[in-house]
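Sequence in, structure out. Go.
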Amino acid sequence: MISEKSKKIIENYIMAYNSFDIESMVKLLHKEIMFRNFTNGDMNTETRGIQEFKELAEKSSKIFSRRRQTVIDYNAIEDKAEVQIEYEAILAVDLPNGLNSGDKIQLKGKSIFGLNEGKISLIEDYS
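Output:
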């Protein structure tokens, strides 16, 4: 079972993410945060530590004019929280894959959160 405290930390992180509030996101992270992004089963991004995470967050925030993660469900997996997510975003720039500024992206996926010392120490996004 996921504690209410852990849920609150995760919800605060998602709220900061949706608001492009990188400083508030970073305040919730453990100094040794590990972030990984998986698309179609392949890992395409990995950061280690707050500085690398912050640089990625700042870079990716410029790609979207709007973004929203919505939590659908929580599951406890060992000592981690698995969060089912619906994601919607509007692009602010043209991407090399053919998507253009103003295009809407909608995805369903999950995020795995690990917490250590009351901070988020692991985020793995799967879509």
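Check: The helical segments are 4-18, 22-27, 50-61. The chain has one domain: 4-126.
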